TrEMBL record:
GO CC annotations on file: membrane
Subcellular location: Membrane
Protein name (record): WAT1-related protein
Organism of origin: Urochloa decumbens
Location (main, coarse): membrane
Domain of life (superkingdom): Eukaryota
Amino acid sequence: MGVGKVLNDVKPYLAMILLQVGFAGMYIVAVASLKRGMSHFVLVVYRNLVATAVMAPFALWFERSIRPKMTLTVFIKIMGLALLEPVLDQNLYYMGANLTSAGFASALVNVLPSVTFVMALILRMEKVRLRSVHSQAKIVGTVLTVAGAVLMILYHGPVVPFPWSKAQHHGGAAGQAAAGSGFLTGTICVIVACVAWSGFFVLQSNTLRSYPAELSLTALICLMGSLMSGAVALVAERRNTQAWVIGFDTRLFTAVYAGIVCSGVAYYVQGLVSRQRGPVFVTAFNPLCMIVTSVMGSIILKEEITLGSVIGAVIIVFGLYALIWGKSKDQENQVADVSASGGSKGGAAAGELPVTLGQLPNGNGKHELGNTRGHVFDVETPATNNGHY
C-alpha cells in the first residue's frame, strides 16, 4: 500500500523529467540535421505531416460526436493559427537554433511566458494591479526575463569549460567573432518566433470559443500548417529538389521523432499530469529542458557554452518562476472568488491568458493546451460558458 502510494506520487515527476529529456532530444536531433544540410522548410513540412497522421485518428474517434460545424470564420482563424505556429514559429525557431546553438535557443525561448504576458496586457486580456504583490511579481518576472535575454545577446564572455569538452574550446573566441552576424540573426529569429508563438496562443483561445474541439483543432492546424509550409518550402527550395529527399537517415528520424514525441506523446502526457497537478507544476520543469539541451549540445554537437549565456539563463529562470508564481496566485484567487460568489462571475475571472505554454479551454470547465511543438496542459477552472484564458 505504502509502495503503491509512493509510486503514484513519483509518476508525475518522472513523466515530466522524461518528457523534458524528450524535448531536449528533439532540439538536439533537429539542430544536428540542420547543420548537416537539411532544409528547415522541409523539416517543418514533414514534422507537421507526421503530427497530422498521429493526431487525426484520435480527433476523429474521440470527438466524433462533439465536433462543431466548420464555418468560414473558424476556417480563417485556423489558417491564421497555421501561419503563426507551424509556418512562422517553427521555421524561425529552427533557423535561429541552427545559426546560434540548441542550448542558446532553448534558453532564450523561456522568455515566451513574458512575451505572452505583455501581449495580453496590450490586448487588455490581462489585468495588473500595481499594489498587488502577485501583479508586482509578474512585472518583476517579465523585466528579469527580458534582462536575461538581453544579457545573453550582448555579453558572451569566456567559454565555460566542461570535463568532457576541454579539447574543443581552443578556437571558441575566434569562432564566435567570425559568426557574430549569424548569431545576431539567429537570436532575432528565435525572438520573433516567440512573438509568433504568443500570438498563436491568443488567437487559439479565441478560436476555441466557437470551435471547442481541441483534438480536431490541433489536427486541422497541423494539416493546414503542412499545406502552407509546403507551399513556402516549394518556393524556397525550388532550385534544390534534393532537399525533399530524406531517406532512412537522421532527417527522417528528426521528422518522425518531432511529430510523434513532441506532438503526440507530449499532448497526452502533459495533459494527464496537468489534470493531477495543474499547469504550474508542468511549467516548472521547462528550465530542465534548457539544462539537458545545453549539456547534450556540448557533448553531441560540440557546442560551446559561454559565461554570458549561463548568467542570462539563470536570470531568465528566476524571472520565469516569479511570473509563474504571480500567475498561479491569480488563478487561486480567481477560484476562491468564483467559489465565494457561486460561480456567477466565472466568465470575468477566467478572462486572462495563462503564462503556461498553450492553455486551452475545452468547454467542460477545463483548460487544455495543444500546439504543434508539443506543449500541452490541462487544468480545472471555474465552470463557465465562456471561461477562456
